[in-house]
Amino acid sequence: MIMMLLLLAGATLLLSYANGANDNFKAVATIYGSSTLSYKKSLILATIAQILGSLASVFVAGALLAAFSGKGLVDDAILADERFVIAVALGAGFAVLIATRMGLPISTTHALVGGLVGAGIAMSSLEGVAWSKLGAVFFLPLLISPLLATALAGTIYPIARFARKRCGIDEVTCLCVGETIEPVAMNADGSLVMARTGLQLTVSQTEQCQQRYSGSVLGISAQKTVDSLHIFSAMSLGFARGLNDTPKILALLLASASFGVNPKLGLVVVAIVMAIGGLLHSRRIATTMGERITEMNRGQGFIANLVASSLVIGASLMGSPVSTTHVSTGSIFGIGMWTKRTHWKVVGQILLAWVVTLPIAGLLAFAIGSTLKMF
């Protein structure tokens, strides 16, 4: 019994670590991709936001805890079996870690659903899984949320862009070195020159050029306003991610009544392990989300984060198990489709990873559950 309980705790912590490694940086991907903050500063921002969201989830965790405990999806007798919970956690955790190693942003929520189904079949049978609940409670929100995020981002961005231009705020290319900002212009041959002096930029100088906003809003620099809103939106998305994901993982520990976990203490432990996973293994996800999907400026990043955080926080308050990954990536897709800078090969790889996440996690959980069932 003690060995099983220790294995259960280890499996849940593995899943927490994997979740942080794959998910934490997604909240600040646009901050990093638009060069608003460095990788290190972006990572610290994401970690703080996730921990705050995880701790706040104690107040809204009820519906998500119930959904991801597996209650109603499989028989109650199976839920009380530590082997079922271990199989779910390990199946989902290993699937997420594999994707993280490949730099693919996948959904821990999808992996958990796959783990619940695979372990449920292993411990019972195909008929032992309530397939109707699977569709209504899990698949519908997971399918609709990324489509909604893409549509909203693609709709709000052109409206915001129109409003910016009407306010006389232009986007200019500048050579930015420290506090020095030099506007640049492009020659017919594509080379860049300093607008003030006409001197041609070197290759290293060209690499330092950034897109910035000119003008002001209520007497405040437009660029500083956008940067502040962008950072705030990233914090909101990181907070939303912790709010929505932490209860899903804790539900596995609470599913086994014999473990006797204090929910509040469990939330703290899961939050800390998620943060550690993000701090140690976010680099590949940062590159994919921040650089490979599409190029975007700071205003576009703000819109993408605003849409994603609003949807995830709303879903958390309703107890709906949406995927932060799908929502945040969907909003970036929406911006990229409008700007026509989407790298479709990368998008195809991500979509394929989304499709195979559930079956891979399910197969892993089934194999682990079948093995544990022999003991």
Provide the structure class.
alpha+beta
Instruction: Please give the domain count.
Output: 2
In N-to-C order, the SSE pattern is HHHHHHHHEEEHEEEHHHHHH
Query: Can you summarize the main beta sheet?
Result: 4 strands, antiparallel
Beta content comes to 5-15%
**Quaternary structure annotation:** single chain
Count of discrete alpha- or pi-helical segments spanning 4 or more residues: 15
**Helix proportion range:** 55-70%
The termini sit apart by 12 Å
Rg (C-alpha, Å) = 22 Å
Q: Strand order within the widest sheet?
A: 3-2-1-4
Global outline: elongated
Number of strands: 6
Low-confidence stretches: none
Mean pLDDT: 81
Verbal overview:
This protein has 15 helices and six strands. With 375 residues, the protein is an alpha+beta fold. The chain has a four-stranded antiparallel sheet with strand order 3-2-1-4. A two-stranded antiparallel sheet has the order 5-6. The protein folds into two domains: 2-164 and 222-373, no CATH class; 171-213, no CATH class. It has helices at residues 2-23, 29-33, 39-56, 62-68, 76-79, 82-101, 108-123, 131-166, 203-207, 222-255, 263-280, 283-292, 298-318, 324-339, 344-373; strands at residues 171-177, 180-186, 192-194, 209-213, 216-217, 220-221. The model has no long low-confidence stretch (mean pLDDT 81). It is 70% helix and 7% strand. It is elongated, with a radius of gyration of 22 Å.
